[in-house]
Amino acid sequence: MGQPAPSDGAPPAGPLAIICGGGSLPLAVADAVSRRGREVLLFPVRGFADRELERYPCHWFTLGQLGRIFGRARAAGCREIVFIGTLVRPSLLRLRLDWTTLRALPRLARAYRGGDDHLLTGVARLFEDEGFRLVGAHEVVPDLLLPEGALGTRQPSARDRADIDRALALLAATGPFDVGQAAVVAGGQVLAIEAVEGTDRMLERIAALRQEGRIAGAAGTGVLVKAPKPGQDRRFDLPSIGPQTVSGIAGAGLGGLAAVAGATVVAEPEEIVRRAEAAGVFVVGVPAREAPR
């Protein structure tokens, strides 16, 4: 077993290892860390991560190859690791286990008996036991977090604000069950709660329901709201938004998006604003105090 990295406040030594899932966030994090003068070593997950990541040093791996990650990261002198990007929880029976992962199988099986946050916390402990320090993307690149206020010129109406408050209350109530981090509310009516399908699929569901006439409200009403779960380990799986989120909101006929400022990771903010302005929807960061305690 490795020894934990010291936490004496000194600058971290070695490159930052980034475990990369799908979406544009892994590349955004790698770019931002590189601009700050720190080297990065990427570990993209086959079947999820984008080939564009190969502009940086990469070691591709399949889920279940923990030994490959530990060995390559340690050889490169990495002491800190970030998890970022989307993944679909695989079946334990489908994992291609290397010897290191096989030895950890009893611990992984216990971690699987719960929601995503429970699983990720269990995996994080495996990395920590190997001497690595797990850090959140927001810790290494604080400017990736959503600021308070509107991105762009569009602002939520008083009705939108009421829907935001209702959605935040709902997410605070469902959070202890370790389900999704997003909900859609329109005119006080809860239209959807994110589950294992993820935000994009949830918005596709709203779009289909609207086309079927199952949603009574006019197009341009309703809000997608994203918030971290109460007590969530914020080193990984913080709520995130990107250009695709805005396109999904527009496709679902919603009025806009609200997410907790300082606790939501933003990918490609300039493109988010461009798409929001073109679609006539708002994107706003709300203060944490608006989330019910």
Quick rundown:
The chain has ten helices and twelve strands.
Label this structure with key terms.
single chain; 293 residues; alpha/beta; Rossmann fold; Cytidine Deaminase, domain 2; 2 domains; 35% helix; globular; disordered N terminus
Query: Secondary-structure element order, as H and E?
Result: EHEHEHHHEHEHEEHEEHEEHE
Helix content: 25-40%
- Average pLDDT number: 87
Decide which structural class fits the backbone. alpha/beta
What do we call the CATH homologous superfamily of the largest domain?
LpxI C-terminal catalytic domain
What is the domain tally?
2
> What's the N-to-C terminus distance?
40 Å
Radius of gyration: 20 Å
Structure overview:
- This protein is of the alpha/beta class and 293 residues long.
- It has 2 domains: 16-141, Rossmann fold (3-Layer(aba) Sandwich); 145-290, LpxI C-terminal catalytic domain (Cytidine Deaminase, domain 2, 3-Layer(aba) Sandwich).
- Helix content is 35%, strand content 16%.
- It has 10 helices and 12 strands.
- A 6-stranded mixed β-sheet has the order 5-12-10-8-6-7, sandwiched between helices. Strands 2-1-3-4 form a 4-stranded parallel β-sheet.
- Helix 4 packs antiparallel against helix 5 (116-129), helix 8 packs parallel to helix 9 and helix 9 (243-251) packs parallel to helix 10 (269-279).
- The longest helix has 17 residues, at 158-174.
- The protein is globular and about 55 Å long.
- The chain starts with 15 loop residues before the first strand and ends in a 7-residue tail after the last strand.
- 41% of the residues are buried.
- Mean pLDDT is 87; it is low at 1-10.
